[in-house]
Amino acid sequence: MTSIGFIGLGIMGRPMARNLIAAGFDLTVHNRSRAAVDELAREGAEVAGSPAAVAGSSDVVITMLPDSPDVESVLLGPAGVLAQANPGSLVIDMSTISPDVTRSLGLEAQSRGVRFLDAPVSGGEAGARAGTLSIMVGGSPEDVDDARPVLSALGSTIARVGPVGAGQTVKAANQVLVAGTIALVSEAIMLLRANGIDTSEAFRVLDGGLAGSAVLRTKAEAMARGDYSPGFRVDLHRKDLRIALDSARRLGVVTPVSSVVDQLLLAVSAAGKGDLDHGALLTVIEGLSSSTA
Amino acid sequence: MTSIGFIGLGIMGRPMARNLIAAGFDLTVHNRSRAAVDELAREGAEVAGSPAAVAGSSDVVITMLPDSPDVESVLLGPAGVLAQANPGSLVIDMSTISPDVTRSLGLEAQSRGVRFLDAPVSGGEAGARAGTLSIMVGGSPEDVDDARPVLSALGSTIARVGPVGAGQTVKAANQVLVAGTIALVSEAIMLLRANGIDTSEAFRVLDGGLAGSAVLRTKAEAMARGDYSPGFRVDLHRKDLRIALDSARRLGVVTPVSSVVDQLLLAVSAAGKGDLDHGALLTVIEGLSSSTA
Questions:
Q1: Is the pLDDT of residue B292 over 90?
Q2: Is B226 exposed, middle or buried (0-12, 13-18, 19+ CB in 10 A)?
Q3: Do the beta carbons of residue A99 and residue A66 sit within 8 Å?
Q4: Where is B158: in which H helix or E strand?
Q5: What does B34-98 look like in DSSP terms, one character per residue?
Q6: Closest-CA residue in chain B for A164?
Q7: Does the distance separating the beta carbons of A206 and B134 come in below 8 Å?
Q8: Which residues 178-217 in chain A show a CB within 8 A of chain B?
Q9: pLDDT higher than 70, residue A23
Q10: Which residue of A23, A152, A234, B87 has the lowest C-beta tally within 10 Å?
């Protein structure tokens, strides 16, 4: 059976690692803070003292980390994954990071005889727990095929969208769509409220037609009642949106709508709410609008 | 069996009228242009020479017309529905028009002993054909209950969202969400293309996560291959969006994102493409962006 190393046991990583254990894989974990490691150890995972040690005992190493510098240091550092990865082994970075950094990491891995995929996810903590994530994979067709049995334990939609880096680009597009839809739903909620409409019934009927979306179905109710417990934090979403808008700007893609959305997310942070769920974008529209609306 | 009158046999009205015949209702139709009337007559509908004549022979009168002035003239004109509607009969306006005009029409109907509902729809021509429209209904709970057997032949989601006018307000919110999502999908398509991504696979994996939407599922493919045959015309969507943004402005609801979307739809019309499907918003983002993107 494939032995898997898992590095990064945060809100997303922890339930994903659990699903791999449940699927019968031998799992070795590493994480900066100890509590999550102890938890996974109790559930049957081996524990390694460094990313390099994880790599030494694994056929497949998965990383699930906050940002580009974290992935760079875990892969390239002196006690990093590539320092001790077995030739022919497969590194799958499931973090959401820059497509450019991703492509460099892919080349660096290749130069050491290690295979590399980027495989960022959508579906949030709920999708991570349920094993129903959407996984957008960049890499060679052969490497993606080899990864499928592992990824199938984590997600229900798995698509190869292009070479290394393509997964991150599609994730960037994902974050454009999600942030924008949250902004649109925020404006719609305010319009409904100001007209005295029952928002719950409205969400139900709106979701049945062309206005339907996963945001409307899974987030609008919590937003309308002011529940902004994360979930996915505003500041992380801002980081992801920057990746998307930087790429768009560099390639000459004009993004009038997403640029306004980006400003609204900035306003959420500026109001000291960057640690709330991204649904808190609604609070900016509320703050701008008439208090009787 | 309830006898139904149907006025307005356009792209939406025609398949809706057909579904009422298929459900076994006695149907009397009226339409300005003759071709659609002849078609329905061949399928078993009675034909009436005026809206008033339709009303005289019906328990329920449905109107499905382009804009507020059309509904006003069909209901209030000298040979209009209210001139000859039976006391206690039910008028259901399924057009998308102004909530304010809707409330006046409701009061006018009431003053003549006629019951009135606004019941605009979402789901497009495909939903109209399949009888799977989302129907957002404003009116008294009793009148809505009486209308359910009729509406059930037309839609799969039927929600009472408040008093007369509330249906149009929710439809306005619907049009905010749909136009905005088309704009977001346009920006995402350009970002994916500029990065050389296979958009079909990307749409599939994006739709599996929090970025998922009915627009992505049902319109993105056609948009990406430049197929803008309507569908729902840009100029009609602009009319609907004006209803929403006028209401928001009047009530002090600030709509930074939807206002940009409104400008982009204006740009589609300004380029002479107002008769294309609203998916043609993508052409504006294309036009603004680098030709190599």
A1: no
A2: exposed
A3: no
A4: strand B155-162
A5: HHHHHHHHHTT-EE-SSHHHHHHT-SEEEE--SSHHHHHHHHHSTTSHHHHPPTT-EEEE-S---
A6: B197
A7: yes
A8: 178, 180-181, 183-185, 187-188, 190-192, 194-198, 201-202, 204-216
A9: yes
A10: B87
A151 interaction partners in chain B (CB closer than 8 Å)? none
Give the pTM.
0.92
Locate the chain A residue with the closest alpha carbon to B255. A187
Q: What is the largest CA-CA distance in chain B?
A: 65
- Give the number of A-B residue pairs with CB atoms closer than 8 Å: 305
What confidence tier does B231 reach under pLDDT thresholds 50, 70, 90? confident
> How far away is chain A from the Cα of B232, in angstroms, using its nearest Cα?
11
Q: Looking at the DSSP assignment, which residues form a beta bridge with residue A90?
A: A60, A115
Active-site annotation of A, residues: 171
Does residue B219 have an active-site annotation?
Answer: no
Query: Chain A residues with CB inside 8 Å of B258's CB?
Result: 184, 187
CATH topology of domain A3-163: Rossmann fold (3.40.50)
| Chain B residue numbers touching A198 (CB-CB < 8 A) | 161-162
Look up residue B234 and give its two tokens: 């840009």
Structure tokens at A193: 């409220």
Correct CATH for B169-288 of 3.40.640.10, 2.30.22.10, 1.10.1040.10, 3.20.20.10? 1.10.1040.10
Q: Burial letters for B229-264: b for 16+ Cβ neighbours within 10 Å, e otherwise? A: ebbbbbbbbbbbbebbbebbeebebbbbbbebbbeb
In A, residues 25-84, which contact B (CB 8 Å cutoff)? none
Domain with CATH 1.10.1040.10 in chain A: 169-288
> And the tokens for A197?
């409409």
- Of B115, B152, B122, B154, nearest to B136 by C-alpha is B122
pLDDT of A1 reads 62
- Report whether pLDDT(B85) > 90: yes
Q: Band of the pLDDT at B1, cuts 50, 70, 90?
A: low
CB proximity B140 to A under 8 Å = no
Angstrom distance (rounded) from CA B123 to CA A17: 40
Residues of A in contact with B216 (CB under 8 A): 177
Angle at CA of residue A206, ends A292 and B160, nearest 5°: 75
Higher per-residue confidence, B73 vs B125: B73
ipTM value > 0.95: no
Structure tokens at B184: 């977001």
The pLDDT confidence band at residue A220, using thresholds 50, 70 and 90, is very high
In chain B, list all ranges with CATH 3.40.50.720: 3-163
CA-wise closest residue to A251 among A95, A69, A100: A100
- Tokens representing B290? 């680098």
Six token digits for residue B163? 């008093």
